[in-house]
Design a protein that fits this description.
The chain has about 775 residues and is mainly beta. Helix content is about 0%, strand content about 45%. A hairpin with a 2-residue loop joins strand 11 and strand 12.
Length: about 775
């Protein structure tokens, strides 16, 4: 009978194979037509499954012509632990199937290898571990170093271990089942902080056949939780002891605690003087120290370098390895000055710290004297003549912001080389603000009808102005990278502020904030925070004065102020900010290096209407009739970790203000109404415009003297802008022209007038209305 059954099966197998049906005997599936494979691949790979569960296997076959269709036979090396039957195809039972292939009955824990065969070709074996259900996985250090460090440093030095090994264990109802579950998978929450490896021989991972341990090697300063997984179960984050035995639920690649900058190789070299159009020759070198006091130079963590004035100079970090890795090269473009700072911040440095604690750069102008001042550079050379000045008007709107019917504002270019107005562009609505991106040709014009983005280099086949009607308001500030702007809508109810990103791509992405009556804003130089000031206004007198701090990684913070604040301005390295008003002292400084924003210095008795911090890290200036305020600060730095005095935790704040003074200089013009203040690119001069005086006043910061530059015809100034080299100033006035002033000879060189297609008023900056629109918005292309 057994022989007859075998003969029948053999005959049926032939017929069924020809028909593409399942054969009798071992577990098999088939497809049609049948080919001749050279390789058979089986998936999934090595697996770990609970007793009594099922696991679906799939095989595929290929030859030189590609995929081929063959019937597959699945085989288990240990059917008592893992079994197949024909009716179940490639579905494996972690135990034994019933005869119908419907019920999988567990038999016992163990190990089996599975293969798939097709037309005489067999796949590589896949390992399957069958085990009791895992309810707990633990992950703990394996052979930790003695003594245990507080963190794992990136520093490369004899005797320093740059990794920690961890061992996973699996439990079922309190009983360890590690040896029966096969290999574990290891992971981390912040994928860049550590490199994960399981191949080092000292891990004793049975040549990769059963992976129980992993090595986590320091890669990027930061914190990351680490895990082990098997059979769909994941451990809690591993708890890592520090030097005192305290457990922390994260692995730490030692956080950066100090970034100290120097020019070249001398630590006390904190300045440079070069010519413009220099592409190489000046290198800024960071000395980066972690919280254990190790100097990180191989590898050097990636910090972000910041130029205070991209039109004058840009800073680019050197990637890769070698003696220049981690340094930054300076490329100069225009005469003037630049301050260079750096920041260690996510996503490339100190990852995973919550809340984020950026590490702001310092310098050491004297040995051992860590201070907050930046690297400063003076750039000399010929004046820039390749750029344009752009002029437009706000006067197509009424004082209340309502458009005048039919009025179209015009935007005129004035080439710096010729100082002759070019052909105008018609703007879709009347602007209320006009700011160029510091890093590109794009300019942003706010309006009650929506944000306008002006691109002078647009092709002749497209409009150079794009308007986004969903973003109405005034442009208060633009980031140094030109990619983000703050737009304040104080006309709509409720008021809103839009933090608009992706500007450089031409597809603005707004984040709307319900902020009442926002009148001023400032970006930190590193771009990580924005100070936004909400104040009572004539149209909204009940708004409480408030400082709003916006960050992309933190919730919007509101800080009540005791009085309205007129302006905010950041210290060059971003660790501090000036606030003009809003506290007991009219001008104060606040921490921005943490989230307390505590007041750290004040300048009582001064109440400037206009205010700006300078990029030298020493001065700030303000204008209050009848003169100018000069503020001086000395800023220290947080203590720096050393090998003998490591920090038990990250210390990046505060940057203490060790000295804060102010002085006042009367410009000798009696009472005046401040209109605008401009600072020369090299911080040598401050220019003051008053809405009731027919001159521009130049205050020399070095000798505290004032020079008047009279405007020809004695018109009243409306707006002004300086070229990036500081040599020429363009002033729009009430006589309808733009006056070109030389800041070298202190004279009004010429008046630029405009001609348009307005038949009723050809010298106006708008059309379709009889009255003259004057040039009250001016911006120089960087």
């Amino acid at each position: 009978m057994r022989r007859l059954f075998a003969q029948v099966c053999a005959i049926l197998t032939v017929f069924l194979a020809i028909g593409g049906l399942t054969s009798c005997g071992s577990s098999a599936t088939s497809t049609s037509p049948i080919g001749t494979p050279t390789t058979v691949t089986l998936s999934p790979a090595d697996s770990s499954v609970d007793l009594g569960s099922t696991l679906q296997f799939t095989a595929s076959a290929r030859n030189g012509a590609g995929s081929v269709n063959v019937p597959f036979v699945y085989t288990s090396s240990n059917p008592a632990v893992l079994s197949f039957i024909p009716s179940a195809g490639g579905l494996a039972c972690a135990g034994r199937w019933d005869t119908l292939g419907q019920i999988c009955t567990p038999t016992g824990a163990g190990f089996a290898q599975v293969t798939a065969s097709g037309n005489g070709v067999t796949s590589a074996p896949v390992n399957v571990y069958v085990h009791l259900h895992i309810d707990t996985i633990t992950l703990s250090p394996y052979n930790p170093p003695i003594p245990q460090p507080d963190c794992i440093t990136l520093a490369q030095a004899p005797g320093i271990q740059n990794f920690l090994d961890f061992q996973a264990q699996a439990f079922s109802n309190g009983m360890e089942v590690t040896n029966t579950v096969g290999s574990f998978t290891f992971s981390q929450t912040n994928s860049t902080v550590a490199k994960i490896s399981t191949t080092d021989p000292s891990l004793n991972n049975n040549n990769g056949n059963q992976i129980l341990r992993a090595r986590f090697t320091a890669a990027v300063p930061g914190l990351t939780q680490i895990f082990a997984s098997a059979a769909g179960v994941t451990s809690l984050p591993a708890e890592v002891p520090d030097s005192k035995g305290h457990l922390h639920p994260y692995f730490e690649t030692c956080l950066v605690q100090s970034v100290n900058l120097q020019v070249g190789n001398a630590t006390t070299n904190t300045s440079f003087a070069v010519t413009s159009n220099l592409s190489a020759g000046v290198n800024v070198t960071p000395t980066i120290i972690d919280r254990l006091g190790n100097t990180l130079d191989n590898p050097v963590p990636a910090v972000s370098f910041i130029s205070s004035s991209p039109p004058n100079a840009t800073v680019t970090a050197t990637a890769g390895t070698g003696p220049t890795a981690g340094t930054a090269g300076v490329k100069t473009s225009a005469p003037g000055a630049v301050s260079i700072t750096a920041v260690c911040a996510p996503p490339t440095c100190n990852v995973g710290v919550d809340p984020p604690q950026p590490v702001y750069s310092t310098t050491t102008p004297a040995n051992g004297d860590y201070v907050g001042t930046p690297i400063t550079g003076l750039i000399t050379g010929s004046p820039v003549t390749s750029k344009n000045v752009y002029v437009t008007t706000t006067q197509c709107d009424t004082a209340a912001g309502a458009p005048i019917n039919g009025c179209q504002p015009l935007l005129f270019p004035i080439p710096v080389k010729t100082n002759a107005a070019g052909n105008s562009v018609t703007l879709p609505s009347s602007p209320n603000s006009f700011i160029f991106s510091p890093k590109s040709d794009k300019a942003y014009l706010g309006s009650s009808s929506g944000l306008m983005v002006f691109t002078p280099t647009s092709s002749t086949n497209s409009s150079p102005v794009a308007q986004f009607t969903s973003l109405p308001g005034k442009v208060l500030a633009v980031s140094l990278d030109g990619n983000t702007a703050v737009v304040s809508d104080t006309l709509s109810i409720p008021n809103q502020v839009y933090v608009v990103t992706n500007l450089e791509s031409g597809t603005p992405s707004p984040s709307p904030l319900l902020i009442n009556s926002a009148t001023a804003a400032a970006f930190s130089p590193d771009g990580l925070k924005i100070f936004i000031l909400g104040n009572p206004t004539p149209s909204n007198p009940t708004v409480p004065p408030t400082l709003y701090v916006y960050s992309t990684v933190l919730a919007l913070k509101q800080i009540p102020l005791s009085a309205p604040a007129i302006a905010a301005s950041f210290y060059p390295n971003s660790a501090l900010a000036f606030l003009n008003g809003g506290a007991a002292g009219a001008v104060t400084m606040r921490n921005t290096c943490d989230t307390s924003y505590a007041q750290v210095a004040s300048f009582p008795g001064r109440n400037p209407v206009l205010f700006q911090g300078l990029s030298d890290g020493v001065h700030a200036v303000g204008v209050e009739s009848p003169g100018i305020d000069v503020f001086s600060v000395a800023v220290g730095a947080p203590p720096v970790a050393t090998l003998t005095s490591p920090q038990t935790q990250l210390v990046t704040c505060p940057f203490p203000v060790t000295s804060a003074t102010s002085s006042f200089v009367n410009i000798g013009q009696g009472t005046f109404t401040p209109l605008k203040m401009l600072v020369a690119p090299d911080n040598s001069r401050v220019y003051i415009l008053a809405s009731n005086l027919g001159s521009v006043f130049a205050f020399d910061l070095g000798v505290n003297t004032v020079t008047a530059i009279p405007l020809t015809g004695n018109p009243v100034p409306l707006d002004a802008s300086l070229t990036s080299d500081g040599v020429t100033m363009y002033v729009g006035t009430t006589d309808g022209s733009v006056h070109v002033l030389s800041t070298v000879s202190n004279v009004d060189l010429q008046e630029v007038t405009f001609v348009n297609n307005n038949s009723s008023n050809k010298s106006s900056l708008c059309s379709n209305i009889p009255q003259t629109c004057n040039p009250d918005l001016i911006a120089v292309q960087p």
